[in-house]
Amino acid sequence: MTGKSFRSSPSVWKLMSRAVTLWVGSFLFLIGIAFTVIGLQNALEEQRFQTHGLVVDATVTDKSIERAARGGNPVTRYLAHYRFTSSNGKEVESSAEVPVEEWERLEAGRTFQVTYLPDAPESSWIQGMGENTWIAVYVFLAIGSGLTLLGGGLAFFEG
């Protein structure tokens, strides 16, 4: 006499827990990819400024404050407005956020150095203020890599 063999099927709870892990892993993987892409874009921009950037003198035209507000800015921003002449003779006006100490020292007519990209003079950085952007690159790449590996591992091994 042959008996029927029943295969035990996984429980509904086990399947649901696997689905949750798969979805969470997929979500973390996508967020990790986004952070990594942002980090890489910032790194490429940094590299462009270091290799192709031109340093020129700019003149302060004005300064302003964007105060923190509940519905808008989460922090007060101190802005320096300046003008410089690019290598092709075009006058460029721009503005940048500066630390409050630098903002307090600025006066209309004062000159300081900026770095700009010759193919995009409207994109400029105040000299000496771009060093901290590498920290942001490393943070975005570290978070992105970690989330991508964690999310990919969860999705792959539980999927």
Could you please describe the fold and organization of this structure?
- With 159 residues, the chain is of the alpha+beta class.
- 46% of the residues lie in helices and 27% in strands.
- The protein contains 3 helices and 5 strands, in the order H-E-E-E-H-E-E-H.
- The chain has a 5-stranded antiparallel β-sheet with strand order 3-2-1-4-5, covered by helices on one side.
- A hairpin with a 2-residue loop joins strand 4 and strand 5 (120-126).
- Helix 1 runs antiparallel to helix 3 (133-158).
Layout of secondary structure:
Elements: H1 12-52, E1 54-66, E2 77-85, E3 91-97, H2 100-105, E4 111-117, E5 120-126, H3 133-158
Antiparallel strand pairs: 1-2, 1-4, 2-3, 4-5
Helix pairs in contact: 1-3
Using brief descriptors, characterize the structure shown.
5-stranded antiparallel sheet, 159 residues, 46% helix, alpha+beta, elongated, 3 helices
Beta-strand proportion: 25-35%
Rg from Cα: 26 Å
Mean pLDDT metric: 85
Main sheet overview: 5 strands, antiparallel
Number of strands: 5
Percentage of residues in helical conformation: 40-55%
Structural class: alpha+beta
Tally of helical segments = 3
Cα separation of the termini:
39 Å
Order of helices and strands: HEEEHEEH
Low-confidence stretches: none
Indicate the overall shape: elongated
Tell me the strand order in the biggest sheet.
3-2-1-4-5
